Amino acid sequence: MEENSKIETSADNSGGGSMLYSAEPHPQAQESGHSSVYGGELPQQETREVPTMQLTEPVQLSKPTEPVPPSEPTEPPQLSKPTEPVQLVKPSGASPDLQPLGSVQLTEPVQTPVLPVPPQPMQSGNGQFDYHGQPVQNPMGFGPMQVPPSVQGAPAAKPKKNFAGLIVGILCAAAVVIVIVVGALAAKVFLGGTSPEKQLAQGFAIMTEEMAAYQSPFAEEIGLDALNKLRDTDPVHTNVDLSFTDPNEISDITNINLELDSITDYQKKMAKYGLSAGAYGFSINVANIVAADNTIYLSVPLLFNNDVYSMELTNLGRDFNNSGWSSYFLETLPEDFSMTLFEDFGSRDGVGIFGEEGELWKIVKEQSEASADSVKFEFIEQKREFGINGTTAEYGGVRFTIDKDMYNDILEAIHEDILSSDFYNEYLKRCQFAYGYYYDDFKEQLDQVIDQTFGIRVEQDIVYDFYLDKKGRIINISTPGDIAVSSKDSYIESYAIDIDFTGTERALDSIEGGIYVKAGEEILYMGISRTAVITEDQYSENLTLSLQENISDDEITFWYANEWDYDDLTFDLKMAFDVPGSSLGINVDGAFTDIVKGESFTLQLDHGEMTIDGEDMLLMRGSVVVEPAENEIEVPDHTIDVFEMSESDVEDLFYNLLYQ
Length: 660
Fold this sequence. Notes:
It is built from 13 helices and 27 strands. By secondary structure, it is of the alpha+beta class. The strands form 3 sheets. The chain has a 22-stranded mixed beta sheet that branches. It has a 3-stranded antiparallel beta sheet with strand order 1-12-11, with no helix packed on it. A two-stranded antiparallel sheet has the order 2-3. A hairpin with a 4-residue loop joins strand 22 and strand 23. The longest helix has 28 residues. It starts with a strand and ends with a helix. The N terminus is likely disordered.
């Protein structure tokens, strides 16, 4: 790393942090022909024209130095911005096609966006057209929809953007890049890669080691891995006993107790659940559920007296269609539709879809590995200054470049693989029973979400910079210039990334930065700010995720903080979610007690509260006990088969429920 890292300390600690707006122009600027995130001439379009803006003053955005716990509300953080409207322009002397991100300066990562708004089709004259330029048909079938002519002299309508799809799509696109980097590194280093690849591979290896330090500090104490293995071979008893109190006393019942008692025996493919509720010292049995093989047995004493109803799920579609339920509701299911209560061992370990062996991970990994021979690693020629531990230093790093056409092909392949995957189609099959008549609409909407998520396309080669310190740690991931993109689902034009990892003990102890997205005249910032401290006695973390638009004071912020004490195994967790005009907070503290490592433990919740706009709305306390089960699960002897009920039986059932 000596060849890429030259340390120069500064007494005044100046110049620390991200340098997103002083980076060099993107190497692919001439190829793309797109504007930068913060300025530049936009290509002319047939349907709309975005004028070039002039920057009068830099935009100053700020955030509070420390998040405010929801239990102690204060004035919400305010975003200071210039009194004049925000105007953007490319810096002088820069490339006319693509500029470095130097037009706007953000002093701190910002914490605010505007709620998502669905995109509107483009218009031409009096007719309305979709993304592909085709007339939009009237839903009643009377030809193209007509819209009123524009008012003379009125400003042109501003296109609205689908911020929800935009955010998810950009995050997905950025994540796929990182997966491609890791996959290419693994392939090239294994085959004897050059110095840049080896240095970056070392940086990712250190980052992986650091992440292990942030796992639950009590996982080792309670023997979580051994306890999970115990579930596969022996029955386990879990009891959740919670008490909820209304601090405002707006109803006659101010305190409610809920208890869920369960026994799971995955070896025998059986489970039993009992739900009870009570108040003022008494409790009633609400419902009992027994699952054996692939059959559910349900009893609800308050509604069904002593009757127990059973439902076998293996041939659910066929049995439902032949029952009185189908004729009563005038609904049918696919004949081959079925459900499985107990998956085979290995599919319950949390990696069925995600994780290192999950189907989604395998799809992304398979596509990224195919790109290993087409990506390029090289040393960064110009070093960059960072502030670490009260001093400043200049560091170099490794630049990663991936061909735009190959990347777009990878995204499209991932998109198609997900739509045709077993896990996606199995999920859709399970939704058929729940959505019934509306299933087709649900599937169409879900397919559209997948389309939007993987619908981002880059218009130039992707270039990411990874800066490393002398210890070989990755201390920054950034784009040297904004990356021009396009999407049929949102008016997104480009994005840029700049995230610092500048912790002292571990680089990931301090994270600051985010992703900047340009859409029309607006810039959306998705920021992350995190600090973590780990000592022999305690682990604490403070995390803020934020969304902000550059021309709005509105903000959306998620804040999370925790403290774990190793000596007495206590914890204190706080979460807050703020949107314009409202906030929701949750605070919980407690401890782990009665631990028999790998066999049992008790999670004691001493105090919990939910607040809305700073006021306590619900108080909670209780316990969660996990231990080996002593009782066996018994299957009810006499049951009523749901699918053998006639239409009149179904009608009588509902009549008795309403008038008993």
